[in-house]
Structures
1.
Amino acid sequence: MTRYHLRYQLLPDTDPAALAAFCATHGIEEVVLIFNSEELHTGHPVGADEDRWFEIVRGARDILVGSGLSVSLNPWVTAGHADRGRVQDVGFAPMVSPFGETSTTTASFVCPNWRKWLAAHYGRFAELGFRVLWLEDDFRFHNHWPLTWGGGFEPVMLERFALLAGDQPTREELVAAITAPGQPHPWRALLQRTWREAQLEVLDLVRQAVGGRAMIGLMSSGLGVASVEGRDWGALFERVEVHRPHFAPYGDVPARDLSYSIAMLELQRPLRPAGIEVAPEIENWTHTEWRKSDTQTWSEMVASQLSGADALLLDVHPFVSGDPARFPRIGRMLTSSRPALDATATGELTTFGVGVPWWPAAATTIHGDGTLEGLSADPLRAAQYLLSYGVPIQAGTAPVTALFGELAWAVPDPLHLLRGGLLLDGTAAAILAERGFGSLLGVQIAEIVARETVSRRPYSVERIVDGGALLSVNVQPRLARLVPDESAQIWTEILTPRLDHWGGGRVAFVNALGGRIFTLAACAPELLGRCDDGQRLAQDAIRFLGGDFPMVTGGPHLMPQYARVGERSRLAIVNGSADSARPVVRLDRDPTATLLRPLEEPRAVRVERDGDRVTIEASVPHRGYVLLEWDA
């Protein structure tokens, strides 16, 4: 069943009884109280400020618990989110960016005064009795506005690094070394270790101060940038009991961007050991009803349920809302959403599809480009390419795996992947060749050409060998010039504006190990223009590689999740287009089908079989889902 946990900002005059009544009306079982946040934020609360919030929180907590609600607490800052023009001087060493910018409110993770305050702060509020005490997602080094990239380069942190490294570079020398092109400098791993140890030390102090009186909840951000920080997910999950994975945008976006949310939820599942409670956050920014549509909120809640979430962390009210009765539409949205959420509530599940791997230490291995951002290999690119073309994914490696971009530096055992089915973009192919595995790819990478490279014969279009149809590669940021081996199958070729040959486009190959390799010249396949021909090529490539799972056609951006749930197989398809569609699936079973229209009751719909194809006999609307189920 659906578990709503409402994350709610306390104002000094918030009426806890009115909040309890709102929760009772809309089936909310837990309130996560936030305090000292956003518009009311004056910095880390100390002295009289902390005393004031303590009494406000205590009064609200007592009334809410007396009303039968479970209550957790979310102090809004640990290190601090962002300055936003605020200044605070309470003796904390400030964060410093890679460029020497200094925060006016955000504290360094190694500041002893801040550490002492944070432990005492959490320890004090633990006295009140909460189910979970949350660490805000500012418990990180990156993204502390207005610092460029973030912090972690303050003098006190560099002193710790110097002790570990046995060397004392300047900040400028350190940044240049860890981001330099080519083989990673040893300092990069040492700085990541410095950051990682500092973060874990702080978490240990918080846990000791809480003393088991509440579970600790961790809010996290993106995987790529966490890797740049050297985050040790296993060590973190040994110290926390609840996880809020980041997965959704803060405002309205095109429905095709659900590919990001689906992939984020999937790729974070293997990071967590069994027993960790997971509550994805359903939120908007800047916390107004107009910032994100009810339809989008609904679809993100359904995606969370399908991913196996234990609860939904609702951050849907303005931080200055006071009385939730001021916003009746939010309550109506939550009540209307519940039938679909109950229908998609999922316990243990096993997902199937193209493997999308991720190695948390990826940023330690990547060859730099002179920036910290360049170390943040994005594991979602392959997922976004595949999902919008109707191809399901699963986290990790699989019989068929997709490996895009700089992540190829992080593969611990390339031969394992090269023995199976492997989809590569141009960058990943070039990296594997540089690592000594070029003979197993079926192509040579003559060069990587950037779009801005001046040439009398620039790349322009891609021609499908079978039929001659043209696709555009004109705005691809980079293209690999592929020279296929004689035994390779050339599916497409890249042409110049005069339609002269430029290089191979998509190349299939069976290597000496029996592995099937499919290489794309595109170095950012997820940015290629989408079309029916592109979908056919993508799905045929997955079939060549050995993919025997159901894939979806019937309209643009019909995105699937294929899973086994208990004794049943389930294919959940969401429509990421603004146009309604009737999905078509190759399937050798006769499934039952349930249509989920946004904010409406689920209803059974018919399917029609034509050979090996099953068509849904109902229109799936914008952001709507259809669930196909059959005996596993």
2.
Amino acid sequence: MRDLTERKAVERMKNEFVSTVSHELRTPLTSIRGSLGLLENGIVGELPPQALGMVRIARTNTERLIRLINDILDLEKMESGMLELKLQPQTAQDLVEATLAGVQGVAEAAHVRLRSDVEGAPQVKGDRDRLIQVLTNLVSNAIKFSPQGASVVVAAGLTADGRVRFSVTDQGSGIPEEKLSRLFGRFQQLDASDTRNKGGTGLGLAISQAIVEQHGGRIDVSSPPSQGATFHFTLEALRVPAPGAGVTLPPDDSRHHVLIVTADADLSALLRGLLSHEGYRVVRAATLTEAAQAVEHAPPDALVVDTRMPDGPVLDWVRRLREQPRTHDLPVLALAGRSQAGGKDAGTALLVDWLPTPVEETRLLKTLRYAMRQPGQARVLVVDDDATTRRVLCAQFERLGALCIEAADGESAVALARDTPPDLIVLDVGLPRLDGFEVVDILRQGKGRATPLIVFTGRELSRTDQRQLTLGITRHLTKARASEEELLASVRELLNGLLARRDAAAEPRKAMP
């Protein structure tokens, strides 16, 4: 018998100390990173090459420290049992697509191809963000250790014992057998010079293992000599008893839901990739029967329908949808080999738009965004803590025919964006309660992720800042440099097709102090 009270108290104090120190370090490090980024981007003039190199080294290492602190906080939460998982039904297809969309830029920079291979429509019950964190970590590592021109394959499917297996396979140099056993330890990295130079905190795999284990799964790795590596984990499969339910998804109010109806697998893959990248939740039905089941189970926010379906006339099915109160106003975009003659046929009234194939991506995305918005004037959410600036901006935008909604802080901006989704957000960065970075990060998690954005701020933004301050189509303008004409031109561009005439009756502005 041993009394562990004192030891547990010491461990608790250690965990609290690490957590407190980590939180206190993040704020000054973020400020240091921002300052170094400004210097690197020439805020005080062009630096000599040697000085610029030193600033770049300092910024890179500051970012590494911030990642390390974030990883330590994640591990401490998991080990102390404070990490709360939001368990919801998830489809393997959605998890893989969301992961690949998030790391596509990294792969392109490394000249590595990404490929998904999801068999069937397996579902699991898990925390979407945490599972995507695991897959993102594994894919990022695979990209990091892959030669240029190689491929990384992210696969998912059911195993023989009824579980769902996720795997990430690269074409790198592989992992020596004697080092496989310690890959998932804290601060563990391979020691070879070609891998040490890749960077990283050495905590990503430990965090991934903890997340998978909290989901009741197991993560492992296999690496045949000189044949790359495959990291894989399995989770309990979620049973879907209803026939035909493979084309439906569990409720998820955080994203717009688009149902693609086409028998063309290549067209489906193109549309799924495009819409998933824009933040839409995509479901495919290969037949009209499957489409009817999917709509009955959970009506989507919009339908994209291929008119060349082999199992029946599409317009007759759309007409039946229009006759039902539940789907009477459902936006329907029809894909055809060519635009219908003048748009005058009887089916035109049933549709939002005819879209010729091959699909013009810009037109499709624009049409979808307009089809799912609330009717009425173009709505611009102006977010700035200075009341005078808000009044001036709103006066300018109202002259264009827009309806302005004002917010003086980050929390109000998020609340208003969720309550009345705007067609455009004009956002300052330095805000009380939640700053601009936090506002954008929160809106990215929901339906606001595709909202056009103008970042209108007095501070100089680094390239990293600009990447973080991005929603839908985004413009970054500096108050001291951007002219009134430049700002209004950006507003007109991003509200294309939505601006009312200047003489339209102006509605009173909504305001939140």
3.
Amino acid sequence: TSKYKSEFLANMSHELRTPLNSILILGQQLTENPDGNLTGKQVEFARTIHGAGTDLLNLISDILDLSKIESGTVTVDAEEILTSSLLETVGRPFRHEAENRHLSFSIDVDTNLARSMVTDSKRLQQVLKNLLSNAFKFTADGGVSLTVSAALGGWSAEHPILNAAPAVVAFEVSDTGIGIPQDKQKLIFEAFQQADAGTSRKYGGTGLGLAISRELASLLGGEIHLRSAPGKGSTFILYLPLKYAGPSVALRPQAPLPMPHTPAPSLQATGAQERVIEQLPDDRHELEPGDTILLIVEDDPHYARVLIDLARDKGFKVLVASRGAEALDLAKQFQPSAVSLDVFLPDMLGWTVLSQLKHNPLTRHIPVQIITLDEDRQHALARGAFSFVNKPTTTEGVSAALSQIKEYARPRRKRLLIVEDNAAEQLSITELLGHEDIEIVTSGTGAGALSTLRENPCDCVVLDLRLPDMSGFEVLDQIRKDETLSNIPVVVFTGRELSAEEDAELHTMARSIVVKGVESPERLLDETSLFLH
């Protein structure tokens, strides 16, 4: 049963969510009633359709999450992460909520705790966000606190991983909310598997949040405990080993499965007979010199239609491809101004299309915007995508994404900022990367680089880690914290080998901004031309 469930989910997760996106966007367009030809009652119906669709999308996402964990298809990507960076990322969205609702919110870290830990940053963030959103949801006044400290005990006496771990970290989320009666404390973790209408990581949604948190904690080699009393608030404590050493329970032996969205040939053959992808009419026969062309690569005809209409409104001529191979041919033949690329295609993954576009001198300069449900922003940006958009479920989302790519595709000289204090080195990098379509700006200090970036945006930054006024890491930290700069790709060029700690720090930075470390001039040329197209 588990094998069939895993196979079904691997192949169906995209199929389940994609039609919902079209429902949400079209439902919203009807709600806005731009032509004013719907009655008040019909607009209300459209609003209900949109609201119900949003709830269903959240529910599907949570069920898929839980099922993937249960079937053992979720892998742990353990790496060294800085505790301070992790807590900054987790706490940011909740600070806004605390301010808006006049609640207190604090994060306290034990000074004796190690600066970094080895675990899966993405999974740990998901658990902490679940616990915090749970705490905020049930707290009307007072506040919420997150305390991180080294733990000497408190977990289950027979826990195999925590008992053997040299050091254990406790993440304590406390609130002054309604509290949970003793007889319900075990139940809340279980009831969530029945999609009980409790808490979810998307505030108030489906109620699978605690079940997912419990499974993820176990996957990371830890466990969650709860202390609570009605009217006195609740405290959830997540115990994790300082260094990941495997899951708390042996994962179910997993039958070899087809990878998600790349079914076995026999499946593909039958699928091809069942579902013929509709070829949508586009503008390929009406193109004229000087047209701004957008190539839309999308296999869902409903969503593609929405994109086509909005792109034409923005002044694009449109080409449409439903398969990766067709997209690559169209890109070479028509040289579009930009590409909007979905990740899940019938014949290949969008990552393969992106890679082939970026490795072909004929197409590598074309900006590619990845549109997908898969929250793999880093993967997209580090491979040369111009920007990353979670498949938007609002007309504004799609429209903003198209405006952004149109602005970027305008013919113009690209700006490259070189941050290097050694004049000879600055000159040699300028010579190496100089080209008539690139404007090169230089700065010898970190402060100078930041003010240059804020005054006049750049398309890429080459950064040395040793600067006279501040370290390259401090420059990266400032870039990351500034929302207007955090999408600028940074190539770190350093003449020396990085220490293990520096390398780990660079990797934590790379979770929120694109950072490439390179040591050789050849790699520097490769990486910068990838980001400058």
4.
Amino acid sequence: MKGAPAYLSQALAPLADTAAWKAFAEAALRADRGAGTLRVLEAAGLAVDLSTQAQSPELLEAGLALLAERDFGAWRERLLEGGIANCTENRAAWHTALRAEEPPGRVAGRVLAERDRVRAFVRHIDAQGRYDSVVHIGIGGSDWGPKLVVSALGYAGTRRQMRFVSNIDGHAIEAGLLGLDPRRTMVVVSSKSFNTTETLNNAQCALRWLREAGIADPWEHVVAVTANAEAAKRMGVAPERIFTFWDWAGGRYSVWSAIGLPIALALGAEALDGLLQGAAAMDAHFAQAPLERNAPVQLALTGLANRNVFGYASLNIAPYDARLVHLVPYLQQLEMESLGKSVDLHGQPVSVPTGPVVWGMPGTDGQHTFFQWLHQGPEGAPVDFIICREADHPYPEHHRLLVANCLAQREALLRGKPASTLETELAAKESDPERAAWLARHKAHPGGRPSTLIVLPRLTAHSLGALLALYEHKVFVQGVVWGINPFDQWGVEYGKVLATGIAEELAGKAPVGQRDPSTAHWVEAWRAAL
């Protein structure tokens, strides 16, 4: 295809037109969807139960044939060995190198040196005892990962008070600084490009706050994490307080890099190390496990069947652990920024729908919020239930009830309850048969709704790292099959460009451009008010 990189010279046929895809779809339609066979995959200490998803020997075989046709083996090798996996930006997507105990040779020196710098800095700060609060300023991939990990693993307390500021809404930075002692506060500014509007504006607010507190050199309180060290230096950050990562580490995959600094500041370097080790264990499983027992691969194929064969437009994430409150938005970014694409690698329209909408919240709160829709709405959605085998609190009855609710909701989605059964039950309570039949129709559950159960032994740095890497690799496999690039995000970039122009217009620095009537109206209205 003209314009595409040379290694994409062999164009893949549209997915929907291929014999392998048609065989996969037909096998999925014929597969058992009633959990007739227990199917649990073990991966890096996690148990992934796919029993209530479509399954059959024929479907498994068809999935393997589909992967072969889409050249999955070569793409996996390209990913894990640092080849050009991100074709539109002509670079690797080598986040696996960041968490390897022994990183690949050509990046080992840089990765290990920066890893050591982060840990040495944390030891130095701990020894000084100078800071008891950290304000972390970043957005997107520079925010969700550290925020998730600190929230999940710091539930019993952190070494320092941690505040995460991401949004450009002034209330966010106001709340992030409120009540802190500037003299005892470190500000960590994290941005891959170091030109992110939200991050730089919030950083300037934090600097003003430090100056207004009478701190002569506010830069002594500031640390930067970026792939653009020169921009951080120009801003004023001292070189020894700049921690780097590289353009081959995508933002939504950057928690494994120096972006993890806040994790070490909050929980200790051992927590960051455990996170990397868990992810590396999942990388090894993804690289080595037979495809039929490969958890990310099979999770991906299950998702493809749900999205493209059974027509589910969304995926619900239900972590039955209150500590994982930030897991859903983390996975929303990972999945929807990666898979929200409408053209294939050659720039041609995709032939089937790609990434689903990802949504959810922790159970059991979700049961009292949207599970009604999951059970009885006409569309429904597959659910990923996530739970720990063991809890870390001293309330065993709470954990029993949590597990019972998780398993019961999953079973109810699968089994359902037909109106005929309900009518018989209600007949014993209702004297009016017509009323019994009417109520039965309201209470009926269709059932047959797919779910996956992911069981962690406990919520530790290792198991959390493995869980996040499981989803990363699942997304990659789906990108390969759909023939899209899961490592760019051009739609997001376009919105940023438009916002820059509108901001200039709102400030009166530029005339209102050629905009649609509604946008032009509100730009003029705000110009008059500001």
